[in-house]
């Protein structure tokens, strides 16, 4: 079965991350599928909103660690960067439903969404430093803008998870619901948006994002250069091997 399920109904395209046996971690093929689906949703005039959701127990464990080991990300043309550019520039409303762990890109992609529903079991984390890496997806710009510097530094330097209530307090999520209701709540919001005039939705989103977008795209590229270099360094190799061997890394 496909690891990204794509379904369109009533003006809403829903992308469901569906790789539960690996905690919905993203492979290159999954980034490519999401980028293709966003491109299709952008050009289909009957689609007004996109929902990104996982499972009631897990949103996403971030990038597949084995993929990091096997095929280090290169800046140009890699599916992850197609996906990042697609999500950062997506012109229609994006709604996310997040339950359980949202690690790495599982959290950073949310900064590009317009509305985020969290299950009360959601746990957000950006453990890039713990993996010998640095922030991605524009998060080094977007996290401090949203949370303020010190909370951003805590989230990005320590990399510890923060829970749904903390995410609500800093403005990363709009509302918290029981996990079994998160996907339905996101659908309800998406359908509410889809009943509104598309041009007004798109123009409002364009104006909301206008000042920040050029800097975000520039930061995604700058982070990618550092990230790609750091993937090859001993610290990252140590962290990936430790994860695979289910032990603590020794830096
Ligand atoms: N890449 C590849 N495989 C992953 C993965 C990832 N990012 N996250 C989890 N998995 C795999 C595990 O290796 C395990 O596989 P196995 O059954 O073959 O041993 C399986 O998914 C279940 O994971 P497990 O760690 O046992 O689940 P958990 O419920 O105890 O913990 C997480 C869930 C998400 C907290 C934990 O898996 C985790 O921290 N994952 C790594 C997150 C990460 O560092 N991502 C990269 C960010 S850039």
Radius of gyration: 17 Å
Number of helical segments? 11
SS-derived structural category: alpha/beta
Poorly predicted ranges: none
Write a short abstract of this structure:
The protein has 251 residues and is an alpha/beta fold.
Describe the structure.
The chain is α/β, with parallel strands linked by helices. The chain has a domain of 175 residues: 2-enoyl-CoA Hydratase, Chain A, domain 1 (Alpha-Beta Complex), CATH 3.90.226. The termini are far apart. It binds coenzyme A. The site of coenzyme A has 14 residues, from helix 2 and strand 5.
Record the SSE blueprint.
Elements: E1 4-9, E2 12-17, H1 28-43, E3 49-53, H2 65-70, H3 79-89, E4 94-98, E5 101-103, H4 105-108, E6 115-119, E7 123-125, H5 139-147, H6 149-158, E8 162-163, H7 164-170, E9 175-177, H8 179-194, H9 198-209, H10 213-231, H11 234-244
Parallel strand pairs: 2-3, 3-4, 4-6, 5-7, 6-9
Antiparallel strand pairs: 1-2, 7-8
Helix pairs in contact: 1-3, 3-10, 5-6, 5-10
Looking at this protein, list some descriptive labels:
2-enoyl-CoA Hydratase, Chain A, domain 1, alpha/beta, 9 strands
């Amino acid at each position: 079965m496909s690891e990204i399920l794509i379904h369109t109904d009533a003006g809403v395209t829903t992308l469901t991350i569906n790789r539960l046996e690996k905690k919905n971690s993203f492979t290159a093929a999954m980034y490519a599928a999401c980028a293709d689906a966003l491109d299709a949703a952008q050009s289909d005039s009957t689609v007004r909103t996109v929902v990104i959701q996982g499972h009631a127990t897990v949103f996403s464990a971030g990038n597949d660690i084995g993929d990091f080991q096997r095929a280090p990300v290169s800046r140009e043309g890699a599916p992850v960067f197609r996906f990042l550019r697609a999500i950062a520039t997506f012109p229609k409303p994006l709604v996310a439903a997040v339950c359980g762990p949202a690690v790495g890109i599982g959290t950073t992609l949310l900064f590009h969404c317009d509305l985020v529903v969290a299950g009360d079991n959601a746990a957000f984390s950006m453990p890039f430093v713990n993996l010998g890496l640095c922030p991605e997806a524009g998060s080094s710009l977007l996290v401090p803008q949203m949370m303020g510097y010190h909370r951003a530094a805590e989230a990005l330097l320590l990399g510890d998870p923060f829970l749904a209530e903390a995410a609500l307090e800093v403005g990363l999520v709009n509302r918290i619901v029981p996990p079994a209701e998160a996907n339905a709540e996101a659908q309800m919001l998406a359908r509410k948006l889809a009943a509104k005039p598309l041009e007004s939705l798109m123009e409002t989103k364009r104006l909301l994002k206008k000042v920040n977008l050029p800097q975000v795209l520039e930061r995604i590229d700058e982070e990618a250069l550092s990230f790609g270099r750091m993937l090859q360094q001993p610290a990252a190799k140590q962290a990936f091997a430790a994860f695979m061997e289910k032990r603590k890394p020794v830096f």
